[in-house]
Design goal:
globular; alpha/beta; single chain; 4-stranded parallel β-sheet
């Protein structure tokens, strides 16, 4: 299972998006491993401007599995927020939820978001949450 962050979807959907990120998203889709969660959907719907984007998101809703944002995901997001804040950084709540969701569900995460890299750099524990630039590594608890 591969949770695709909105930053990676944006690269994938734009003709001039980052080639490596686009290839990782394409591979996850072709393998039937790509999924999303409510914060990713919200970010994408918030940016959908035209009919083509709306059609694409409706198709994604039809075919992509949705990872639930459970009470455990929220608890982990709080922990990740504290880890990030201890370094003086304030990370967007949606990024904290997305990272926590990937960890809770045992999903890899594809992204192109510096905030997610920061969470990786500041979280503590035995496994790195997600590798820089969206390399695939399992999330860890702080």
């Amino acid at each position: 299972m591969v949770l695709v962050d909105s930053s990676a979807w944006i690269h994938f959907l734009r003709p001039d998006g980052d080639v490596e990120v686009r290839q990782r998203v394409d591979a996850a889709l072709r393998a039937g491993l790509a999924c999303w969660c409510a914060p990713v959907r919200l970010e994408l719907w918030n940016g959908a401007g035209g009919d083509r984007e709306v059609r694409t998101l409706k198709e994604f809703e039809r075919v992509l599995p949705d990872l639930a944002i459970t009470a455990e995901v929220w608890d982990l997001a709080y922990q990740l927020a504290r880890s990030s804040r201890r370094t003086g950084a304030s990370v967007p709540a949606t990024d904290l939820l997305i990272m926590a969701c990937a960890h809770h569900h045992g999903a890899d995460l594809i992204h192109g978001d510096a905030h997610l890299d920061h969470i990786v750099d500041t979280a503590s524990g035995e496994e790195r949450p997600v590798a820089r630039g969206g390399e695939r590594r399992r999330p860890r608890r702080p």
